[in-house]
User: Fold beta-glucosidase from Trematosphaeria pertusa.
Amino acid sequence: MSSSNVFAMLSLLLLSISSCAGAAAIDKRLPVPAGYVAAPYYPAPHGGWTSDWSESYRKASLLVQNMTLAEKTNITAGTGIYMGRCVGNTGSALRVGIPQLCLQDGPLGVRNTDHNTAFPPGITTGATWDKDLMHARGVALGEEFRGKGINVHLGPSVGPLGRKPRGGRNWEGFGADPVLQGFGGALTVEGVQSVGVIATIKHFIANEQEMYRMYNLVQPGISSNLDDRTLHELYLWPFAEGIRSGVGAVMIAYNAVNGSACSQNSYLMNGILKDELGFQGFVMSDWLAQISGVSSALAGLDMTMPGDIHTVPLVLGESYWMDEYSRAILNGSTPVDRLNDAVTRILAAYFQMGQDQNYPPPNFDTNTQDAEGPLYPGALFSPTGVVNEFVDVQGNHAEVAREIARDAITLLKNINGTLPLSGNATLKVFGTDAEKNPDGINSCSDQGCNKGTLGMGWGSGSARYPYMNSPIDGLNTRGANYQFFNTDSFPSNSNPSPSDVAIVFVTADSGENYITVENNPGDRTSSNLNLWHNGDQLIKDVAAQYSNVIVIVHTVGPVLLEEWHDLPSVKAVLFAHLPGQEAGDSLMQVLFGDVSPSGHLPYTIPTSEDDYPESVGLVYFEVGQPQDTFTEGLYIDYRHFNKAGIKPRYAFGHGLSYTSFSFSNATITPVTPLTATPPTRPAKGETPSYPTTIPPASEAYWPDNFNRIWRYLYSWLDKSDADAAAAAANSSATYPYPEGYSNEQKPGPPAGGAQGGNPALFDVAYDVSVTITNTGSRAGKAVAQLYVQFPSGISFDTPVIQLRDFEKTAELAANQSQTVQMRVTRKDLSVWDVVSQNWIIPSVDGEYGIWIGESSDTLALKCSTASGSCTGNQTSPV
Ligand SMILES: *[C@@H]1O[C@H](CO)[C@@H](O)[C@H](O)[C@H]1NC(C)=O
Ligand SMILES: *[C@@H]1O[C@H](CO)[C@@H](O)[C@H](O)[C@H]1NC(C)=O
Ligand SMILES: *[C@@H]1O[C@H](CO)[C@@H](O)[C@H](O)[C@H]1NC(C)=O
Ligand SMILES: *[C@@H]1O[C@H](CO)[C@@H](O)[C@H](O)[C@H]1NC(C)=O
Ligand SMILES: *[C@@H]1O[C@H](CO)[C@@H](O)[C@H](O)[C@H]1NC(C)=O
Ligand SMILES: *[C@@H]1O[C@H](CO)[C@@H](O)[C@H](O)[C@H]1NC(C)=O
Ligand SMILES: *[C@@H]1O[C@H](CO)[C@@H](O)[C@H](O)[C@H]1NC(C)=O
Ligand SMILES: *[C@@H]1O[C@H](CO)[C@@H](O)[C@H](O)[C@H]1NC(C)=O
Ligand SMILES: *[C@@H]1O[C@H](CO)[C@@H](O)[C@H](O)[C@H]1NC(C)=O
Ligand SMILES: *[C@@H]1O[C@H](CO)[C@@H](O)[C@H](O)[C@H]1NC(C)=O
Assistant:
């Protein structure tokens, strides 16, 4: 037994022990607040009805027709935790040419490997507001996943959306707004899939905090209780965009919605994802999120990962599916039609990305960094072999990583042109964040510590750094005149001189719930929204001794700046977000003025945490199922601050430059005429059909003399078990189907019709253009942000303004202009009407304000849909 086997077995035991402390039933639904209901939606809609997937479905159905029961159930589940080289490994169907599929984390790079790029995470990418960079990062990510032989990339993350400022995993996504998150997610999907890798948009849905997210024997996972309109207009929006871009996989979240676990919530998977949003790929569970076999299949789950049941006796190699799925088909509990659809969806995604053509097998091992090791570390005895081939997949991706890190840097404050620095400035640098973790850049597993330069948060959404280009490395490369005090307490020996410029590096971290860092169990429970490591004190101490202080913040999200922001010596404040491996040179390019900063905040920075609605605070321990009720509805982040009339420290979208821009010559052109309701959706196309008869029990018999690996998950049954199951199908004891169950395929809701919903929702209602001129003396990139203000007097309460599009210019030289094009779609001008279950335009001829500016609180250009004209010098609506 090798050391990694021992390690793996210990982890398994710990996982099991931590979830077996009691015996409360988890299959009964606990009460949720009055009015929140998880309605049944059956059956699972067949995939294959949109023309853009029909060829892939044709290929898939030819195979599925020829597959045995055990082959089909084999590819709907993982072979078990630590039972292969990837974090998830499906079974294979080699007889028909389908290999095991390799699924691997995570959204910012290939996790647990070597010779990969540690890209800046989503939040940093969002802060660039640059669609081209969002796409380019997706392509580069896809190349690295493909290069490692990974079929399914477990990203992008567009949920959490960032409803809770303390939420642990907000940094994996692109910002606290559905449209910014939607473009970030969809462009990543398009980039990743352009090189043949299946992308996975996750976590579906309303997974807004880390604590209590998982079901265990004593407590069900947290229930996110939210109304239908809020679901559609906020949390579902980025998923709809990703599906519209053709995403191949969706990962469901750990939590429940309205009391029903996402992994078996038929309304969400069957109704919303597969019918309304026309999702054509497959739905997988988050790791160990599945809590039932037949129910989850009926509710629309297509693949379970990593295959095992979620709790004891995990160590013994048990699955809700695999052999149990074969049994459930034979005994008639799960209609064979459901299994055929799940398998067809998985194989269709495989063909849709062209993975049948020369796709490389995995050449790395997520479980070990050794060249050789056990092939099945989760088994007691495992054959060993070559597991890591150390394939370098970095290409020239450091360039796009650096460009994102640089163009995300958000200048919040810059008094009297303190920045950029002159090359000969005398610098005093403070804070341990300026230099690499002295214990080693990858010394904490899954980056589960905040030590040294903070390039990413922690958890499964992290990756190992191939190197860390720290700010100190950056200063060295430039030959800057600096002195570094590698401490978070103000040193007594820094000898301040009046001409010195002091640079203080500070951080705030968060991550995934299975690791606790400095008493923060994923969510920022202990640090609150404050800087870590007494950052406020360090800044104040430096500001007391130096008169030119620049604060650089590496952070996962909003932090409070109030203790020091207005001190006279604090001249400049920069958010460098989470830069990934390229922290140093990217920052130097901005500090020394090679480029002007061009990032903008992807969230609001408040002056006090009390300024948020109470309902977006973290939910702590509750007996039974913790209830998280989204009573603030649509009013999160800037939507809330604007409604409540609270001026934040910095508004959503804020970001300064070294130069200045003017916006002029705006035009608005009607394109598609609007109607109160969208045109009728197209009908569903044909989907593959198969015999619905239960296959012979012999299709699930173990092959003769098969050499089983202990704990490995197989889809076969003993002959006697298979025969007994088949006999049970003829008995009168039928499976207790859920309320509302039916085998009759539905035509689909009016709001559906194509990937992402009714295609008419995406019709362009107005083209909008604006000319941006660099009116300053330095080169720089500007961001145009377009917000919609609904007409007054309508019967729907709507946020004051909502982001609907944005565009970043190329680098403009002084006096140079660029005209950028944006668009407003039908959906952008609609509200979700819960009564008609459709997107409606509340006032077709109403005066919609289309506001354009550099941030959500400096909107001076207004185009009107009623007058068809645009005027400048307007008073910003907020
Ligand atoms: C949750 O309950 C609310 C209130 O009844 C309802 O509007 C919404 O559609 C439900 N959502 C889901 C996903 O079941
Ligand atoms: C399916 O099986 C039939 C009959 O055995 C064979 O002719 C056909 O080529 C097979 N199709 C595929 C896609 O394997
Ligand atoms: C299921 O997948 C495993 C792993 O690839 C393989 O050993 C086994 O033969 C497969 N079972 C079937 C029925 O093809
Ligand atoms: C059929 O098998 C499934 C999976 O093991 C099980 O949940 C179900 O209760 C069985 N049904 C009958 C009628 O035996
Ligand atoms: C900015 O510079 C001007 C002119 O040197 C000076 O009067 C003013 O006090 C400075 N402002 C701040 C906030 O330092
Ligand atoms: C630094 O260089 C600038 C020009 O780049 C010059 O104006 C300034 O006097 C220099 N300062 C010092 C302290 O040498
Ligand atoms: C004004 O906008 C129009 C339409 O986009 C564009 O063709 C034109 O060049 C712009 N004019 C100026 C002066 O920038
Ligand atoms: C179940 O019943 C059908 C029809 O009555 C029969 O053809 C089949 O052999 C039976 N299966 C088993 C396993 O008893
Ligand atoms: C920009 O335009 C102004 C006014 O036309 C002119 O004075 C200035 O020299 C120009 N600057 C550059 C860098 O071309
Ligand atoms: C705003 O007003 C200024 C001064 O009156 C004028 O020069 C400028 O063109 C106006 N801007 C717009 C976009 O109308």
User: Anything to note?
Assistant: The pocket of 2-acetamido-2-deoxy-beta-D-glucopyranose (ligand 2) is lined by residues 62-63, 66, 96 (CB under 6 Å). The chain has three domains: 3-361+386-392, 412-619+633-658, 662-680+758-871.
